[in-house]
Automatic annotation (TrEMBL):
GO biological process terms, semicolon-separated: aerobic respiration
Oligomeric and partner information: NDH-1 is composed of 14 different subunits. Subunits NuoA, H, J, K, L, M, N constitute the membrane sector of the complex.
Superkingdom of this protein's organism: Bacteria
Reactions catalysed: a quinone + NADH + 5 H(+)(in) = a quinol + NAD(+) + 4 H(+)(out)
A GO term from the CC aspect: plasma membrane
One Pfam family cited in the UniProt record for this chain: NADHdh
Function: NDH-1 shuttles electrons from NADH, via FMN and iron-sulfur (Fe-S) centers, to quinones in the respiratory chain. The immediate electron acceptor for the enzyme in this species is believed to be ubiquinone. Couples the redox reaction to proton translocation (for every two electrons transferred, four hydrogen ions are translocated across the cytoplasmic membrane), and thus conserves the redox energy in a proton gradient. This subunit may bind ubiquinone.
Enzyme Commission no: 7.1.1.-
Main location: membrane
Protein's name in the database: NADH-quinone oxidoreductase subunit H
Localization per record: Cell membrane; Membrane
Keyword entries, A-Z: Cell membrane, Membrane, NAD, Quinone, Translocase, Transmembrane, Transmembrane helix, Ubiquinone
Length: 345
């Protein structure tokens, strides 16, 4: 009976954590639309959203209500099952990626440590790459099932882009793994609590990872699958109502999770330099806020780049990935291996 009670406690803890993380991810995605409009307005000397609520803070709620109230449209010649499955898969894979991120140090409740991480698997980085690679199917399903040539072209572009930049992203992390010796995100964060952040050891690896994250999230200047001047509206052109909302939300959730992963791998995660708090619950709260602040900063950089750098041509996009980023990532691996061998002598 005692073991059964512990199992139920474990299950309740994980369910509560899952609900909290999903709610926070959706909330951040929702208000990222408001933040992006405000950042764009500031950079273009405009006001931005200012009608729905004070400072336009209710604008995301108004947009969500509009999507809910829109008519559900299925193109007559579409594959209806795959047409519906595409946005669901895109949203599901976007949310699943957060399962292995350590959001803070454990809370202590009634003498029991409650880890603020859904699953501490020893292959956390491989899990992230596996889930992210499944997101390609959501894009391809949506573009192909729409039976629209522009949607199909955009989906092919998006899939080719994501597959190409996943290679450089994976290679950039191999050098980091050579230093850390672990695929567990929790272990990588704990190692950074006893020394310098990984970005100081792997600056080139971080730059490559960040550029690839822009391409993986279909963000400017790599949003070739949504190039309005070439492909009308992109791979989700035929979508309406919340099916369209799922695709748009998935993009912002991916941006949030990518920012959290960058903060975890390269910027110490929930650690704050030279700050040590004795109370574990206070440390967990402060650490969670620190990780959230780092994540919000990267989200701002994503938005800053969108309204600063023009979109690449598609041949430039592929040339950058295959002819520049992959060779640089391989060179970074060789240099890292040589330095590790030299230090061991």
């Amino acid at each position: 009976m005692h073991l059964l009670a512990i199992d139920w406690m474990f299950l309740v803890e994980k369910l509560v954590l899952i609900v909290v993380i999903i709610s926070v991810s959706l909330g951040v995605a929702m208000y990222s639309t408001w933040g992006e409009r405000k950042v764009a307005a500031y950079m273009q000397d405009r006001i931005g959203p200012n009608r729905a609520g004070p400072l336009g803070l209710l604008q995301p709620l108004a947009d969500g209500m509009k999507l809910f109230m829109k008519e559900e449209i299925f193109p007559a010649s579409s594959n209806k099952f795959l047409f519906l499955l595409g946005p669901c898969l895109a949203m599901l894979t976007a949310m699943m990626t957060s399962a292995v991120i350590p959001w803070s140090s454990p809370l202590k409740v009634s003498g029991h440590d409650v880890p603020l991480q859904i699953a501490d698997v020893n292959i956390g980085i491989l899990y992230i790459f596996g889930v992210v690679s499944m997101g390609v199917y959501g894009i391809m399903m949506g573009g192909w099932a729409s039976n629209n040539k522009f949607s199909l072209l955009a989906a092919i572009r998006g899939a080719s882009q994501i597959i190409s930049y996943e290679l450089a992203m994976g290679l950039s992390l191999i050098a980091l793994l050579m230093l850390t010796g672990s695929l567990s995100l929790k272990t990588i964060v704990e190692q950074q609590s006893h020394g310098l952040w990984n970005v100081l050891y792997q600056p080139l690896g971080f730059i490559i990872f960040f550029i690839c994250a822009l391409a993986e999230c279909n963000r400017t200047p790599f949003d070739l699958s949504e190039a309005e001047n070439e492909l009308n509206f992109g791979y989700h052109q035929e979508y309406s109502s919340m099916k369209l909302g799922f695709y748009l939300f998935a993009e912002y959730v991916n941006m949030f999770i990518s920012s959290a992963i960058m903060a975890t791998l390269f910027f110490g995660g929930y650690n704050i330099p030279y700050v040590h708090i004795a109370d574990p619950n206070v440390a967990a709260i402060v650490g969670g806020l620190a990780l959230f602040a780092k994540t919000v900063f990267f989200i701002f950089v994503f938005m800053w780049i969108r309204w600063t750098i023009p979109r690449f041509r598609y041949d430039q996009l592929m040339r950058l990935g295959w002819n520049a980023l992959i060779p640089l990532a391989l060179l970074n691996m060789v240099i890292t291996g040589a330095v590790i061998l030299w230090l061991k002598k």
